[in-house]
Write a structure and sequence with these properties.
It is built from 14 helices and five strands. It is mainly alpha-helical. Strands 1-4-5 form a three-stranded parallel beta sheet. Helix 7 links the parallel strand 4 and strand 5. Helix 1 crosses helix 10 and helix 5 runs antiparallel to helix 6.
């Protein structure tokens, strides 16, 4: 079970991975319009997206107009959040995060808002160190009532499918069933970022039975 809290309320601070997923999904404007306030991106995470242009990634170009339109707010790390940030980037590799993830968590803690982040390691560290911080993923956001109020079922399915196939969006375990229900079996099989047992239609119980049989 992923250690994600379920109170998904704006405003949000979103890591680079979230913007990559939203840009790939093709409905970032609609998603952001559905929220009550601008979504924050740490300037450090924005820098990561900009550097990604050299690798052929389009997220920076995709979100720049949304920043200009006021849907996204870029915020530098304030002095008061630096200690938390430094504690997340310095130390053993198993206990530290990359700069963008650390800045996202530090800003969310500083402002008392929800952190949107997709990497399992970052979510686990946040749950262990900051149990009162609300953390959610891109998938939580896309399946939220906020987004469902502006995207019909077909549009939501298309956005999920594009994020999964083009950005290899990670879906937390507690949302796999709902995502597969939205996609349908044919689309789910094409989403290689989903676990194999999900793409092949095996339930956890059926997969365990098959493994025992093979042993």
């Amino acid at each position: 079970m992923d250690p994600v809290r379920f109170r998904l309320e704006p405003p949000f601070v979103a890591d680079a991975s979230v913007w990559i997923n939203l840009d790939a999904g093709g409905r970032a404007v609609d998603v952001l319009r559905a929220l009550a306030s601008p979504t924050i991106i740490p300037s450090i995470a924005l820098g990561e997206l900009e550097r990604g242009r050299d690798k052929g990634r389009s997220a920076y170009v995709g979100i720049t107009p949304l920043i200009a339109a006021g849907y996204i707010t870029v915020i530098d790390l304030p002095d008061a959040a630096e200690d938390i940030y430094l504690s997340l980037v310095a130390g053993r590799a198993s206990q530290t995060l990359d700069d963008g993830e650390a800045a996202t968590l530090a800003l969310a803690l500083h402002f008392g808002v929800t952190a949107l982040i997709d990497e399992r390691k970052a979510i686990s560290i946040a749950a262990a160190r900051f149990p009162n911080l609300t953390v959610a993923t891109t998938t939580d956001l896309l399946l939220s009532s906020h987004v469902r109020s502006v995207l019909d079922a077909d549009a939501l399915t298309a956005a999920l499918f594009a994020s999964l196939t083009q950005a290899r969006m990670r879906v937390p375990d507690h949302l796999l069933e709902e995502v597969c229900s939205c996609l349908g079996p044919e689309r789910a099989r094409l989403c290689l970022s989903l676990p194999a047992r999900v793409r092949t239609g095996l339930t956890d119980k059926a997969a365990a039975t098959l493994i025992r049989h093979l042993d």
